[in-house]
Structure formats: structure tokens, C-alpha cells
Amino acid sequence: MSTLQAEHVYKVFGRRPGAAVRALRDGASREELRTDGATAAVIDASFRVEPGEIFVIMGLSGSGKSTLLRMLNGLLEPTDGRILFDGRDLTALSRRELRHVRSTKISMVFQHFALFPHRSVLENAAYGLEVQGADRADRERRAAEALELCGLSGWQDSWPDELSGGMQQRVGLARALATDADLLLMDESFSALDPLIRRDMQDQLLELQKTLGKTIVFITHDLNEAMRLGDGIAVMRDGRIVQQGTAEDILTRPADDYVASFVQDVDRSRVLTADAVMTGPGAGCSCGCPTVTPDTPLADLCAVSARVPHPVAVTGTDGAVVGTVAQDRLVAFIGDEHRAPVRCEEAAA
Questions:
Q1: Which CATH architecture has domain 271-348?
Q2: Regarding beta strands 215-220 and 54-58, do their DSSP bridges make them parallel or antiparallel, or are they unpaired?
């Protein structure tokens, strides 16, 4: 499996980009560079994506996230810094070597589907394999398998304009999966979809990831989407990564006021889990009351807490109590109201 790493990456457009990077390292601001005719799109970005991880880069429009993504597969060349994939420095490859890596190791899923209207669904899904030079029978077989994975079995002979927006995006995802690339780059891939279809596509991606275990870099401006999908998250502002961590890290320990303003409207009960709020195991309870696991969402934990007269026990895979969650601590995290406890006999019923 492949590891992706960015090391102190800069991207400057305009005049004298090398001088602009040096000025940024000396403390110059983006605004100061603009007076000299240079635009700093990405500034000193460093991160590492482990094999099988969904790494989300999020930020508002103009934060530099899409520019950063395009440097990860060589569509844009960094002004300074390195992009390492499978231990190879993509910035040092020849054009031919880079094209080979892009056609065999890295696939991209775009925001606006990017389907060919004159090709069938199967032909669209097989396009990456055609670029690789796979023979027709092989590419059609692999494309059909990818379409089935994405829930489009039976639509192979349809045309893109016969499909809904969500189905078209599934074709784009199938095209990326058909090449069996190690790395998927997804640039706001679900943002053009209606909310219900968008959530359905998020579910689809998470289910596929359980089976395929791809390394994925996902770009979004939606924090709820980032929190739902990301194993790791990087928040960008004005070209810089201002915080990296898990959804729990960013939600409970925002690095600055900018990140805090992002997370203030997030539904914590759907993001945080029992592991984030539990304390030491304590004495436990042998009365048969319901328990939860460390990955139980707080929304589900609240339902259990409302039914027991004591802290909720958190149990590991072996059934042993690994922690407890008191109701007042739960309320402090999500702002819920206390509910009157009941007797153990009622809770266990």
C-alpha cells in the first residue's frame, strides 16, 4: 500500500515565484506579495497520508485546497517543496514517468463528473484503462466490476444524460476504481449533489472503503462532510494548513478562533464518541444495565444515559469495562438537558 507525503510545499503564481517563497519564509504576507504581482496559493504545506486512510483537506474558497490537490498528482508543479508517493519524489520525475504514475497509480474524481456524453456508462468507466492500453475485453470486464461496486449494475449501456446527478458521480467513482489505482484524489466530488444524494454518496464511499482500503485525499469546504469521512483532517486558511488532526481533535481542541468558528455549528453528538468523553473505569455496575463501546456516537450514548441511574459503562471487545461516562460530563460536551434517572431494574428491562 502507498503512503503520500507533502514536505514544505509552496505554490506561487505570477512574477518571481522563487523570490516570493523566500519572502514568505522571511515572514512576508500574502497581501505583500500581491503588490509585487505574485499570488501565494499554498504556503509551507506539510502532511502525511497513511495507507488506507481517508485524509480530508478542507477550507473555504480561495484557501488553496484545490491547488494543493493538483500538486499531489503533478498537474501543477510545486514552486518549492516535495511530494513523495510510494517513496518517490513526484517533483523529480520526468514527464513520461509522471504520466505513467498518473495513469496507473493515481486516479481523480472531479466535482462535475467529467463524463464523455458520446460514450456509454461502461465506456466512461473504462476510459482510464483505455489510457493505460488495456485490451477491450479486459477493460470492459474491470469497468463492469467497478460499476457493480458502485451500485450501477445494469446501467452499462446507458448514456450519461440518462442518469441522475448522483448516478453520474458514481460513474466517475467507478472510473477511478476500475484502474485499481492506489491513491484516489477527490476534488469536492459530492458538492454539486443535492443534500440527500450527497449523504448517500458519502455512505457509498465509506462502504467501498471498508472493502477496498484505498488511500484517499478528499477536498471539501463542508466541515460536517470532513468530520464524517476523514480519518485525518487538515484545515486550510489563506494558503496555509492551520490545524491537522482527527475530527475529535479539531472539534474539541480548535487551534485558533478561525477553526473554532468553523466547528461551532457542528453536531457534536454525531461526531464525538464515547471514547472522547469517558473517564476511568471506576467500579462498574453488575446490575445488567445497557453498556456502550468506545466508538458509540454521543447521540446513541445519550439514549443509554437517559435509561440508567449511574455513569454508563464503556466496554471493550472482550466485554471488560474500559471507562465510564457520567451524565453531567455528557451534558457538558453536547449541552443536552439532564433527564431523571430510573432504577437499575427498569433500565435493564
A1: Alpha-Beta Complex (3.90)
A2: parallel
